[in-house]
Amino acid sequence: MAESEQPVVVEMKNIVKRFGTVEALRGVDFKVRKGEVHALMGDNGAGKSTLIKILTGVYDLTQGEIFFEGKPVKIKSPAYARSMGIETAYQDLALVPLMSIWRNFFLGREIVTNIGIAKWLNRKVMAQQCRAALCDIGIEIRSPEEKVGMLSGGERQSIAIGRAIYFGAKLLILDEPTSALSVGETQKVISYIYNARERGLPVIFITHNINQIYECSDCYTIIRQGVNVGTYQRGDLTQQDIADLITGTRGQ
Q1: Beta strand 37-41 pairing with 219-224
Q2: Boundaries of every domain in the chain
Q3: Could you tell me which residue, 137 or 121, shows the higher pLDDT?
Q4: Does CATH number 3.40.1210.10 belong to domain 1-85+170-178+199-252?
Q5: CA dist 183 to 14, 162, 179, 191, 208, Å?
Q6: What is the pTM of this model?
Q7: How far apart are CA 53 and CA 68, in angstroms?
Q8: Which of 64, 74, 91, 246 is 20 to 30 Å apart from 180, CA to CA?
Q9: CB atoms closer than 10 angstroms to residue 156
Q10: Distance from C-alpha of 76 to C-alpha of 73, rounded to nearest angstrom
Q11: Exposed, middle or buried: residue 80 (CB in 10 Å: 0-12, 13-18, 19+)?
Q12: Which residue would you say has higher pLDDT here, 184 or 123?
């Protein structure tokens, strides 16, 4: 299948990462284009999480180059990655269960009103904007005042995805987003991923679930033992092909 003509948002070239004498990544190339859902796949210990931690500033790379929107970058920290527009929703989602939906939505980006030398959270405006922003991308909530701890796993994922879209993310990374969800909630999260793609937002989808990858991804990059086995477009492989490449029972 022909490669997409959409512009490349992020490109990682010849990425090497060593932890002492252990070489976790050995010359990995990886790129993601605008408006695509790109699955990053591999068994436990394959190196996919290490690659993403380099992209999000958790780890320094040992060797290699990263380009973001065509420019070489050095991603110094997770905060720096976020300032560039790289948003990550991890399995634990980094949400605060005892806080309301709107507080979590605006966490670290609060709207404040200055009264003299004091600053007050503009609760009403943030609650209204939170509800409107989520509704705009097809996410209905009962009340923005509801505590996040009362939400289901799928609803929590929707808040993380909606927040990334609202604040203008240029790249969304989802780490095992459906690992603990029911079939119905998984379908809802996948619909939110489709919505992000339709808006031109590229999504890196990290998961072990080949069925979900096969359903919603435009392409797949498979990493095994620190090496990029290959990148394949939708339709190039069967589900069994993907499983065989992950486990190494099939050659490249």
Answers
A1: parallel
A2: 1-85+170-178+199-252, 92-169
A3: 121
A4: no
A5: 38, 20, 10, 13, 15
A6: 0.84
A7: 15
A8: 246
A9: 23
A10: 9
A11: middle
A12: 123
